UniProtKB/TrEMBL annotation:
UniProt main location, coarse: membrane
Protein name, entry field: Oxysterol-binding protein
Key words, A-Z: Lipid transport, Lipid-binding, Membrane, Phosphoprotein, Transport
GO annotation, cellular component aspect: cytosol; perinuclear endoplasmic reticulum; plasma membrane
GO molecular function, one term: cholesterol binding
């Protein structure tokens, strides 16, 4: 696999490439239509604003100074540092650019499909550029559904399956021919000047028509200027996307922001290669704005640089736009910088499970601007959760070992179950079914009372 930082791209005129690649007319490509910028999520009767964020002041350092080196999920935080969404809703927000996967489902070329999958994986970070507030930690057993078959063509379900460490299981079905699932554990550490957020776990994506099965993991997020200055977030690290059916690969590199660099801020680069290691596409863009792909027509080594390293020179056709970020709604700066989709996620809906994040009282109070009442309610819910945990541990049968083993033994997710992932070799929670059938019957007798 070509390291995405060790290549140089040279654009070749399309007419020159025709002589090299083909004698007849070009085969149609799904990517040919990818340069059209989508107009945004479908317009349905959903809310387009929430109450403005109150102007409460609270010193972040006064709380964080005692948290250096500690796992932040175990430290109670006032809602003043939150946004009125749960982590389950933030996870669901990754689906904002689902149209990329809808388009990918029509690809006959696996390397073209990989380009769109890579763009989708990058697009999930675009909402984070201004979103420095933390989402609510879900209660154990909390759920969030997104039932948007009519306009988005998909159904999504998340469940909080572990509290320490905080883990969420997620399953998405699309009527456009794909499904996505993951179990994500969030690890966060305060390092003194910055906060590291490390999502752990594999993301799976499968297309029904071809059986192409993609797996990748998320990069590390870093929040800077915890002590002094304006908070800002960066995404860094490498993401490898593997198609386990064809062995195609895409290596994405998220370059760290540098004040002194002349390069594009928040830059992402990548190369799509087939099972033989032959590079087919170069990817470039930024995780907060857009991604492009350029078809490679020829590659050759460059002369060694002063440090002795040699880069590959890729001659490519002109780049095509894969994805472009939607503009933020009007007044977004006063609404936690929520996207158009994010504004709808906590909107009240009839018929959801009683464990749904929309029904969480402290989060609802915070959204309405009643932060003092929200903090009081948050403390009540956290104490209720601690009491439930103590009761589970007391009821645990003999033969259990550590407290962690006991909790794993006695808490069983309602809609997901632990299975061995044959591709990663890890044990992960996967959807076992039943949720949408229960919703159809409006039978929620099995749901715990967590709120």
């Amino acid at each position: 696999m070509e390291d995405s930082t060790s290549f140089i791209t040279v654009i070749t005129e399309a007419k020159e490439d025709r002589c090299v690649l083909q004698a007849g007319p070009a085969a149609p490509s799904v990517l040919d239509g990818a340069s059209l910028v989508p107009k945004g999520p479908p317009k349905v009767k959903r809310r387009v604003r929430i109450p403005d964020k109150p102007n409460y002041s609270l010193n972040l350092w006064s709380i964080m100074k005692n948290c250096i080196g500690r796992e932040l999920s175990k430290i109670p935080m006032p809602v003043n540092f939150n946004e009125p969404l749960s982590m389950l809703q933030r996870l669901t927000e990754d689906l904002e650019y689902h149209h990329l996967l809808d388009k990918a489902a029509h690809c006959t070329s696996s390397v073209e499909q990989m380009c769109l999958v890579a763009a989708f994986s990058v697009s999930s970070y675009s909402t984070t550029v201004h979103r420095i507030a933390k989402p609510f930690n879900p209660m154990l057993g909390e759920t969030f559904e997104l039932d948007r078959l009519d306009d988005m063509g998909l159904r999504s379900l998340c469940e909080q399956v572990s509290h320490h460490p905080p883990s969420a299981a997620h399953y998405v079905f699309s009527k456009h021919g794909w499904s996505l699932w993951q179990e994500i554990t969030i690890s966060s550490k305060f390092r003194g000047k910055y906060l590291s957020i490390m999502p752990l776990g594999a993301i799976h994506l499968e297309f029904q028509a071809t059986g192409n099965h993609y797996v990748w993991r998320k990069s590390t997020s870093t929040v800077h200027n915890i002590i002094v200055g304006k908070l800002w977030i960066d995404q860094t690290g490498d993401i490898e996307i593997v198609n386990h059916k064809t062995q195609d690969r895409c290596q994405l590199k998220f370059l760290p922001y540098s004040y002194f660099s002349k390069d594009v801020a928040r830059k992402v680069t990548g190369v799509v290669s087939d099972s033989q290691g032959k590079a087919h596409y170069v990817l470039s863009g930024s995780w907060d704005e857009q991604m492009e792909c350029a078809k490679i027509v020829q590659s050759s080594p460059s002369s060694p640089s002063s440090d002795g390293k040699q880069k590959t020179v890729y001659q490519t056709l002109p780049a095509k736009l894969l994805w472009k970020k939607y503009p933020l709604p009007e007044n977004a700066e006063n609404m936690y910088y929520f996207s158009e989709l994010a504004l709808t996620l906590n909107e009240h809906e009839e018929g959801v499970a009683p464990t749904d994040s929309r029904l969480r009282p402290d989060q609802r109070l915070m959204e309405k601007g009643h932060w003092d009442e929200a903090n009081t309610e948050k403390q009540r819910l956290e104490e209720k959760q601690r009491l439930s945990r103590r009761r589970r541990l007391e009821a645990c049968s003999r033969g259990c070992g550590t407290e962690e083993e006991k909790e794993a033994d006695v808490y069983m997710p309602l809609w997901f179950e632990k299975r061995l992932d044959p591709l990663t070799g890890e044990t992960a929670c996967m959807y076992k079914g039943g949720y949408w059938e229960a919703k159809e019957r409006q039978d929620w007798h099995m749901c715990p009372n967590i709120f």
